[in-house]
TrEMBL record:
Any GO CC annotation of this UniProt entry: plasma membrane
Protein name: Efflux transporter outer membrane subunit
Annotated GO MF terms: efflux transmembrane transporter activity
Membrane-related topology note: Lipid-anchor
Length: 477
């Protein structure tokens, strides 16, 4: 009767444990929205520039050489590669958690029982024949193997491993996104450097033109045809233009060193194309359809993998409410004398199983579960934001390329008109039919217009680079 009562009480206790463990709080999870617009500008062509490898997209051999060096030596990229290695090791850790753990054990010890203890007194009062008494002090030698294994009933450990795999793959996509941005940064800095070279050449040409005009004005001053005022104004203009070249040279130095930093080397001259910058024609890029961003953009793929990992984290946190089953086993040899260690009588083994379930400290488990759910919702919003940002980036660059093309055409005509006006104003001034201020303003306007034209060309080239990056190009080898 007494044993039956004990069995009934144990059964009620196990049912209570199971019920308390299986009651999981209900939390609302948000589903992600993967819907994107059907097209950018009513175009249905699926040809996408992002599919073109960067070595084929950039035709300048000096630029491709810089990019190739940066992909090998850029410190930030190499740091990211080590983060990928860390994520890969995390997968190995998670994999090892749901596999049985097996180890070897060997030990030796000695034990002397005190006389005035229950064990010591018991041994002293026991009538044992001489030669059969227990050795004192008692030695102990052990050689064996042991194994522990948590049976993954609720897939808690397997889901944790899958989550780690997704985060590892997300880190790989993060590296791809960094490669895309690195290529874009180098290309932008390279075209800026070419633009600065062109602006420096324009300044030096204007210095020669203005110096010649200054000589003419001085001759006119000696001939008493003009006063000292135009001489000083033209001289000031020449000095101002001469100062511009040093500002541009400083910008060139900074642009070169920005490239050197991205390439991972100390400051040194950057080899570049000497072709006239104005003659470079921006590459024609095909944007394809917005749905292709989901596969081409590494940051979208990274956000998607992080979202999948966060969903698995919720399942792992949910499984903590359920009972866990553990199995331990061991086998080996143990004796108090090394000579007996390898006899059959020294063999020992054990096998045990246990079930544990949360009972008291459930608030901590609930908090972990709630945090995992909140992080999953956060990952959904991050995924949707990444898609929205990618689409807007492409739309902005498409509009920018179109507007810059129109602006460059108008600025080219402006430069042509002002360049012709310089010669006209000089001739009129020489024949005393134009004021010296008209000559100065014409030269200044012509210089600014040529600077603006070069600036617009640089923006065109950088816009092509940016739309290539926005479409998700550059990370494919």
């Amino acid at each position: 009767m007494f044993n039956r009562k004990i069995r009934n009480w144990l059964g009620i206790t196990l049912v209570t444990l199971t019920y308390s463990a299986c009651s999981v709080p209900t939390l609302v999870q948000k589903s992600e929205n993967k819907i994107v617009p059907a097209h950018y500008t009513n175009a249905q062509d699926t040809t996408n520039a992002a599919q073109v490898p960067w070595k084929n997209f950039f035709a300048d051999p000096f630029l491709t050489a810089l990019i190739d060096t940066a992909l090998q030596r850029n410190q930030e990229l190499n740091i990211t590669l080590q983060e990928i290695e860390i994520a890969r090791n995390e997968v190995r850790i998670r994999k090892g958690e749901y596999l049985p753990s097996v180890g070897l054990r060997a030990g030796a010890g000695v034990d002397k029982v005190a006389r005035f203890t229950n064990i010591g007194a018991l041994e002293a009062t026991t009538d044992i024949e001489p030669g059969k008494e227990m050795p004192e002090p008692l030695q102990d030698y052990l050689v064996g193997a042991y194994a522990t294994w948590e049976v993954d009933v609720w897939h808690k450990l397997r889901n944790a491993r899958k989550s780690a795999v997704n985060r590892y793959l997300a880190s790989v996509e993060g590296k791809n996104f960094m490669v895309t941005n690195l290529i874009s940064e180098i290309a932008e800095a390279y075209y800026e450097l070419l633009a600065l070279d062109t602006q420096l050449a324009i300044v030096r040409q204007n210095i020669d033109i203005q110096s010649n005009v200054l000589k003419i004005v001085r001759l006119q001053k000696e001939a008493a045809r003009v006063t000292e005022l135009p001489v000083r104004r033209f001289q000031a203009q020449v000095l101002h233009t001469q100062s511009l070249q040093y500002e541009i040279q400083q910008k060139i130095t900074e642009a070169e060193n920005r490239i050197n930093f991205l390439v991972g080397r100390f400051p040194q001259p950057v080899q570049r194309n000497t072709q006239a910058f104005e003659s470079i024609v921006p590459a024609v890029t095909q944007t394809g359809v917005p749905a292709q961003l989901l596969a081409n953009r590494p940051d979208i793929r990274q956000a998607e993998l992080n979202l999948a990992a966060s969903k698995l984290d919720v399942q792992v946190a949910r499984a903590r409410f359920y009972p866990s089953l553990g199995i331990t086993a061991g086998v080996g040899l143990q004796a108090f004398n090394p000579t007996y260690l390898f006899k059959p009588e020294s063999i020992l083994y054990s096998l045990a199983g246990d079930i544990t379930a949360p009972l008291v400290n459930r608030n901590a488990i609930k908090a972990v579960y709630a945090s995992a759910n909140a992080q999953q919702i956060q990952a959904v919003y991050n995924y949707e934001r990444t898609i929205l940002n990618a689409y807007i980036e492409v739309v902005n660059q498409v509009a920018k390329i179109s507007n810059l093309e129109k602006s460059y055409d108008l600025k080219s005509r402006e430069v042509e008109a002002l360049t012709q006006s310089i010669e006209i104003s000089n001739n009129l001034f020489t024949s005393a039919r134009a004021d010296y201020m008209e000559v100065l303003m014409t030269q200044r306007d012509a210089l600014e217009s040529r600077f603006d034209l070069v600036e617009t060309k640089m923006q065109q080239m950088q816009a092509v680079v940016n739309i290539y990056r926005a479409l998700g190009g550059g990370w494919r080898q």
